[in-house]
From TrEMBL:
Pfam families named in the record: HTH_1, LysR_substrate
Species: Paramylibacter ulvae
InterPro entries the record matches: LysR_HTH_N (IPR000847), LysR_subst-bd (IPR005119), WH-like_DNA-bd_sf (IPR036388), WH_DNA-bd_sf (IPR036390)
Designated name of the protein: LysR family transcriptional regulator
Domain HTH lysR-type: 2-59
Keyword Acetylation annotated: no
Keyword Transcription: yes
Keywords: DNA-binding, Transcription, Transcription regulation
PANTHER family (UniProt xref): HTH-TYPE TRANSCRIPTIONAL REGULATOR, TRANSCRIPTIONAL REGULATOR LYSR FAMILY
Family, similarity comment: Belongs to the LysR transcriptional regulatory family.
Length: 313
């Protein structure tokens, strides 16, 4: 039997990815974390990690032990759900969604936590398939995805339609834009940006657009909160869901160019069948639906605080 304390330390280390932060999270010293790791490796009989400077990668044995640690956590959570009072204001909830939606949603989550001090809510930005897989495995209680899911073990509720926005510096509001003009300005690329460009530009520039890989990239950013910064600084344009624009603190320095053909993504909240019957999960799901209704109203409000500029062709 693997030592439960050592296994929990190892699982937390893999989740955090840093010895010092793991020690702080667990209320331990860094040598204490290392000691637990060495003891667990001795118990297994093989090294669990391979160090590379301050970072590390898992060995095959480490991956196998991590799978056990994650499975044990899921079992313990299921046990807690069974024996605890089904209180909507008590317990842990995990949510997976896109980075732009997470940036918009998190302030609302904080407000919810102010009213429920014993509620622990974890929000993780993740790609679409990772969200679906994690909801199926129980790692996420709720997921927000940009397409309907038809799976026998999942429940899905439609949230809203989220606009895909072409975002330029505020100083360029009111100007005409075609693909040539955009390439002169330069694309502020990000992990989802290429797919967004294929989606929006193939719809609006069918003759000239040859694929996102042919766009002139001005810079690349993989932190969702920083993507609009180069645009606000006048260094390029980008494409983001409306939630990502709304959540940007300097959004008054941006302008949204409304192309002739608009593109929307349908957002769905998904959960594993049976999980949504747990009071805290059901209430948070309903809370998200209520919060997102305000977001939906802003999509179609011509008096939006930001300039909505239409280009003529």
């Amino acid at each position: 039997m693997l030592n439960a304390t050592w296994l929990d330390t190892f699982t937390t280390l893999c989740d955090v990815g840093h010895f010092t932060r793991t020690a702080e999270l667990l209320g331990m010293t860094q040598p204490g974390v290392s000691q637990h790791l060495h003891k667990l490796a001795s118990q297994v009989g093989k090294p669990l990690i391979s160090k590379d400077g301050k970072s590390f990668t898992l060995t095959p044995a480490g991956e196998a032990v991590l799978a056990i640690g994650l499975a044990r956590r899921q079992q313990e959570r299921a046990l807690q759900d069974t024996i605890n009072i089904d209180d909507p204001h008590v317990g842990d909830i995990s949510i997976g969604c896109s980075g732009s939606f997470a940036m918009w949603l998190y302030p609302h989550i904080l407000d919810r936590m102010h009213h429920a001090p014993e509620l622990v809510i974890r929000v993780t930005a993740a790609p679409h398939m990772s969200i679906v897989t994690s909801v199926l495995s129980g790692e996420f209680d709720l997921g927000v995805v940009a397409e309907p899911i038809n799976h026998p073990r999942l429940e899905a509720i439609e949230l809203t339609r989220e606009e895909l926005c072409l975002v330029v510096p505020r100083s360029l509001a009111g100007q005409d834009f075609d693909l040539h003009r955009l390439n002169e300005l330069g694309f502020v690329a990000h992990p989802d940006g290429y797919a967004y460009a294929d989606d929006l530009f193939s719809l609006n520039f069918p003759k000239d657009f040859k694929g996102a890989d042919r766009l002139r990239v001005r810079t690349f950013v993989n932190q969702i909160g920083q993507i609009p910064i180069p645009v606000a600084e006048g260094l390029g344009y980008t494409i983001l869901p409306k939630s990502g624009v709304d959540a940007f603190v300097r959004k008054k320095e941006l302008a949204i160019i409304q192309l002739p053909k608009q593109r929307y993504h349908d957002l769905w909240v998904i959960s594993r069948k049976g999980r949504s019957e747990i009071a805290r999960i059901a209430e948070l799901r309903d809370f998200i639906c209520l919060a997102v209704s305000a977001l939906e109203a802003r999509f179609f409000d011509v008096t939006d605080q930001m300039d909505m500029t239409t280009t003529d062709r």
